Give the backbone structure.
Amino acid sequence: MPKSQGRLSGLIFASTVAWFALIPLLQSSIPARAADETTQEHAGPSLEIEKCLAMQSMSALCLWAEALQAIQGIERESTRSLALGYVARTVARNGQPGDASAILTRALEITPVIEDDAYRARALASIAGAMAETGQSGIALEIARGIEREIFRTRALANIAAGLTKDGQFEDALEIARKIEGDSSRARALANIAGAIAKDGDSGDANVILTEALQIARGIEDEIIPAALALVNVAGVLAKTGQSAEASVILEEARATARKIEDEADSAGIRATIAHAIADTGQIGDALEIARGIEDESHQARATAGIAGALADAGQFGDALEIAQGIERESIRARALASIAGAISKDGNFGKAQEIAQGIEDNSSRARALTNIARAMAETGDYGEWSVILIDAAEIAQGIEDDSSRARALADIARAMAETGDSGEASVMLIDAAEIARGIEVERYRARPLADIAGAAADVERAE
């Protein structure tokens, strides 16, 4: 197993310290970053944030700061909590170290304005996971230990384990995962770590951890839904590591567990998840049988889209298209077709992929499909048409009626332009996206597109 990049024992503070006492520590941990080498050589990102709020800038840091400012204006606490979590995840995924530290610290400072304990704990759980992913494991753990509600403390620890896993710190991730109180969450965290270890090339250790996760999942007796989810999660990791036969056995256990669920909505959701997982093992007939037995239209469509995606990933494009085109719910059908078009383009059949993409009615999904086709073209060295396709995608994106969706689509296209080497056009596209997002008057609709644009801006900054 790869060695940990740093033991947690030296980072964990006393568990009795309340989370809000960490803010001064967080602020002092932010590395200095010059905003202007000639006049502000020692100015840190936190100072830059204050300047960002006084002026509109296209830097990733400033765009994330604008997103946080919008969040503070959201009245509904549940929405504010979700938005904070979303910003934290985009920063962890895309932000440069200094920017990430500054924005996550500012996000933490905002949480006290959320009066409801549950919503505040949910936001803290997301921030803790993001901090772990960006190298601040000790602080993340202290935040988690300050959360009083077990369900959210468990979620925070799971997020931290996931963040450490993404950062390649498998030993530390395992140490945290084994401390998670909820059996289902602990089993799923261990399974996910095992999957990452297997992907890193150590199948032996991965299988040992998967066995541990499976034992925990099978031992859950009093909670039907968590038990089923844990079994599905372990099976999914087994399938991804090439152990389809073993995965199938566990999925049958999950199906048997799911049959005990009395609530129809809960049952439909779990069966949709199981159908998708079964499709990943190659048992398409069984997966379709489960999907077609789901009465709820939304869950049935989601399950069917998952099956179509599994077929596309396996290279069975004709069958995938046939199944996807039969999905009745338009939005889900459009996303499924966009995903298939992307898979076909990765296989090198750009003509067929474009044909499918151009046939998608939903502008957002059609733009996304064309953007991913352009990415695939660039990866294979086919630069002849990718810029034309991205321009086409941008024109389609401009036709998206919803301002938030339009801004996010343009940000994704800008990111693709940067990935394919055209950072100049990407910057122009980001300006258009930011102008749209900044024009959204309702804060709850403005925060997420700004966060997405910030993530794209970070990618452009790295490409320049």
The radius of gyration is 23 Å.
